[in-house]
Design goal:
This protein is an all-alpha fold. The protein has one domain. It contains 16 helices and no strands. Helix 1 packs across helix 2, helix 8 packs antiparallel against helix 9 and helix 14 crosses helix 16. It starts with 10 loop residues before the first helix and ends in a 15-residue tail after the last helix.
C-alpha cells in the first residue's frame, strides 16, 4: 500500500488535504464525537477552506507546467477535461446520495431527512429538480462543494496566463471577491437561494493557491518570507479566532447578552461569501504550516502521515465516498451513539476511505504502467563467438 503513495511531491499538501477529507466525513456525520476535535470548533476556517486552497495549489502546479510546455490552449483543454470529470462525479454522487437518503426516509418513515438535506424537491417536483441539479442551479446539502470546484476551475481555465503575472492575477481576484461581497453578486439558483459557497467569492482562495503553486520556468515561485512579527501576528489572529468560534457556536447567548456591540460582527462572519476573518484565518494557517513544517520532516514518512497523504492524493473518489459514508454513519449513530458504535463507525469509515484510496491509486499506477512504451528489443549480436 505504501508503495502506491507518491513521495516525490510536497507531502505537506497531501497530508493536509487528506486530513481535510477525513474531517469532511466526520463533520457531515451528526452525532459523531470526533467532530469535536476537528478544526471547525477552534478556528474560523474549516476543511472546506483547506480543500479549495489546496485545489488551487495543485492546479497551479500541475497545469502551470503544461501551459509553459505546450501553451495555454492545450493546458486549458486539459483543465476543461478535469471540469467534465468533476461534473460527472457530482452527478453520480447526486444520484447515489438522493437514492440513499430517499430509500432511508421511506423505510424508516423519516421524511425529515428529505427536508433537512434539502432533497424535498425530488418528492414534489422530481423532473424539475433533476433538470436544475444538472444545471448546478439546485444543490442539496453536502452536494455544494463540487459545484464550487467546477466553477472556479472553469474560471481558472480562462485565467491561466495570468499566473505569469501573479500579483495582477491576485489583484483581479481580490477585486472580484470585494465586489461579490459588497454587491451580493452570486450565480443564479433555482429557488432564489444563494449558492451555499459563492464561487465569485471563494475563487480568491483558489487563486491564492494557484499563485503559490505555480512554478515559472527559470524563475522563483511566489513566496512570503518568514518574519517573526508576522508569525506572532498569525498566532494572535488564530487565538482571537478560537475565542470567536467558541462564542459563535457554543456561547452565543452569552455573546448576545454580554457583548451587544460585538455580537453583530460575530453574526456577520458568514461562510457563503468567504468572510474576511475566515480568509485571514486560512492564510495564517498556511503561513505557519509552510514555514513551521520542513518539507523533509521525518514524521511525514511515518505510517499515519502517509495514510493521510494517500487520502489527499486520491481526493475526488475519497471525497465522494465520504459523503455517502457520512449518511450511513449517521443512521448507525441514530440507532445507538454509545462508545462502541462510535468506534465502529469511525474505524470502519476510515478503513473504507483508505481502502478506496488504495484501490484508485493502484488502478492509476496500472494505467500509467500500460502507457509506458516497452523497451526496444536489442538485435542479436552477429559474428563468431569464441
Amino acid at each position: 500500500m505504501l508503495a502506491l503513495i507518491r513521495q516525490d511531491r510536497d507531502l505537506r499538501v497531501d497530508i493536509v488535504r487528506g486530513f481535510a477529507l477525513w474531517a469532511i466525513f466526520v463533520n457531515h456525520t451528526p452525532g459523531n464525537w470526533l467532530g469535536y476535535i476537528t478544526p471547525r470548533n477552534y478556528t474560523l476556517a474549516d476543511a472546506t477552506e483547506a480543500f479549495v486552497m489546496l485545489a488551487g495549489y495543485a492546479a497551479g502546479l500541475a497545469y502551470g507546467i503544461v501551459m509553459d510546455r505546450q501553451g495555454w490552449f492545450f493546458a486549458a483543454s486539459r483543465v476543461m477535461g478535469r471540469v467534465f470529470t468533476l461534473y460527472v462525479a457530482h452527478i453520480f454522487l447526486l444520484v447515489l446520495f438522493t437514492a440513499q437518503v430517499g430509500f432511508s426516509a421511506e423505510r424508516l418513515d423519516a421524511a425529515a431527512y428529505l427536508d433537512e438535506l434539502h432533497l424535498d424537491p425530488f418528492a414534489t417536483e422530481p423532473y424539475r429538480a433533476l433538470l436544475e441539479a444538472l444545471l448546478l442551479r439546485y444543490q442539496p446539502s453536502f452536494l455544494n462543494i463540487l459545484p464550487l470546484y467546477i466553477v472556479v476551475l472553469a474560471m481558472f481555465a480562462l485565467a491561466m496566463p495570468l499566473m505569469r503575472r501573479p500579483w495582477l492575477m491576485l489583484a483581479l481576484s481580490v477585486g472580484l471577491w470585494v465586489c461579490a461581497r459588497a454587491f451580493d453578486l452570486t450565480l443564479p439558483s433555482w429557488r432564489g437561494e444563494d449558492w451555499f459557497f459563492n464561487p465569485l467569492a471563494w475563487q480568491l482562495l483558489f487563486f491564492i493557491g494557484c499563485a503559490i503553486g505555480y512554478r515559472p520556468p527559470g524563475g522563483a515561485a511566489l513566496s512570503v518570507p518568514w518574519r517573526p512579527w508576522a508569525g506572532a501576528l498569525c498566532w494572535l489572529l488564530l487565538a482571537a479566532g478560537a475565542a470567536m468560534t467558541v462564542l459563535i457556536y457554543f456561547q452565543w447567548d452569552f455573546a448576545e447578552a454580554s457583548l451587544p456591540a460585538f455580537a453583530p460582527f460575530l453574526a456577520a462572519i458568514d461562510k457563503a461569501s468567504l468572510h474576511p476573518m475566515r480568509l485571514l484565518t486560512m492564510l495564517a494557517l498556511t503561513y505557519l504550516i509552510a514555514h513551521g513544517i520542513p518539507r523533509d520532516a521525518a514524521w511525514m514518512r511515518t505510517r499515519p502521515a502517509l495514510l493521510l497523504a494517500l487520502l489527499g492524493q486520491q481526493a475526488l473518489p475519497v471525497f465522494c465516498a465520504g459523503i455517502g459514508l457520512s449518511f450511513a454513519a449517521r443512521l448507525a449513530l441514530e440507532f445507538s451513539d454509545g462508545w462502541a458504535v462510535q468506534a465502529v463507525v469511525n474505524l470502519v469509515g476510515a478503513a473504507l476511505l483508505v481502502g478506496l484510496a488504495v484501490l484508485t491509486a493502484w488502478y492509476g499506477a496500472e494505467k500509467r504502467a500500460v502507457r509506458r512504451p516497452p523497451p526496444p528489443l536489442q538485435a542479436p549480436a552477429t559474428g563468431d563467438s569464441r
